[in-house]
Structures are given as C-alpha cells and as structure tokens.
Amino acid sequence: RVFLRAINQYADMLNKKFLDQANFELQLWNNYFHLAVAFLTQESLQLENFSSAKRAKILNKYGDMRRQIGFEIRDMWYNLGQHKIKFIPEMVGPILEMTLIPETELRKATIPIFFDMMQCEFHFTRSFQMFENEIITKLDHEVEGGRGDEQYKVLFDKILLEHCRKHKYLAKSGETFVKLVVRLMERLLDYRTIMHDENKENRMSCTVNVL
C-alpha cells in the first residue's frame, strides 16, 4: 500500500510537470509505466493464488490493488495525448502483461488501450503494422509462460471488435487483425494444454496448428 501511494504521487508529478510539449520527459514516463506494471504483476498481489480465507482477508483490508493501479495506468496512458506514438511498440508488451491478469474488471478497463494504440499508429503511418507484429510476438511468449485463458480470448475478441467496427478506417483491417490474434490465442492455449499429453500425435498436430 505504501508503494502504491508513492507510485500515485509520482504519477501526479508527471501529469503536473512533465506532460506538456515543452517539459515532456520520455524516460520518466517510460519508467512510470514499467514500474507500475511491475507493481501490478508482482507475485504477492496475485490473489487467485491464495487460499479463499487469505484472499478474503486481503480484499477486506486493502482491496485489490492491481485494479487500483491498473485503472491509474489506463488514465496515464490516455493523458499522453499526442505523445502516445513515442511508446509504440515498446509499451505493447507491458500493457499486454497487465491485461492478462485474471481480474475481469481490470481486463475490461485496459484491453481498449490496444485499440487506442492501433488508432494512434494508424493516424501517423496509415497502418498499425508495428503494433500488430509486437502483440503477436509478445502474446506467444506470455501464453507459453502460463498466462492467458479462455475468458481473456473472449473479452479481447468482443471489446476490440466493438471498437474497430465503430471506426471509419479501421473497421475492415481491424476486424482481420482481431480474428487473427484470437485464432492464434486459441492455438497457443491448445498447445499449452497438450504440451504434457502423452500422445505424440496430438502434440504434433497442435504444433503444426501454431506454426
């Protein structure tokens, strides 16, 4: 909780002193995002890994601090305005790590950042190729490391499709991208499940699907 308060004070200072065009400090903002995501993903805050009694006790006393800092990260991202492009594709990995935390409200609040990144890159380059390549690479790594689940796949699909379909220029390419990532996620999750299967044929078939 002490760390959370400190990070929030750091965030206030960034917004007040280091956000406008003349004083913008890329490295400070970068440090903030990496620090906040490291805080959110630390082992001692992953409540689903605790017994129900311990989890209830922590929630009762402190609430879910992952949700609190996650909403703060989301707001800080939107505060960046025209500076956002400086954080693409580097911030895709840390944001992905945050959205994969198995907390539904946190996921719903932070998955839309991906659409914002797509929109932002499209505004500057008329495509979102850097974002797309980065999320595919990082997703592979994260799912293999044990993160991600069926609920995440469904939310990712639903939220991003809704946003893309409302956008004049991203409707078609955005939908193609979302379908591609969801299909990849499906295959990566299957592959992870079957990794320990005794049946070599099943493992081989899943590997071919991922490739």
From TrEMBL:
InterPro entries: DOCK, TPR_DOCK. Residues 1-159 form the Dedicator of cytokinesis TPR repeats region domain. It comes from the Eukaryota. One of its GO terms (biological process) is cell migration. GO terms for cellular component: cytoplasm; plasma membrane. GO terms for molecular function: guanyl-nucleotide exchange factor activity; small GTPase binding. This is DOCK1 protein. The lineage of its organism: Eukaryota, Metazoa, Chordata, Craniata, Vertebrata.
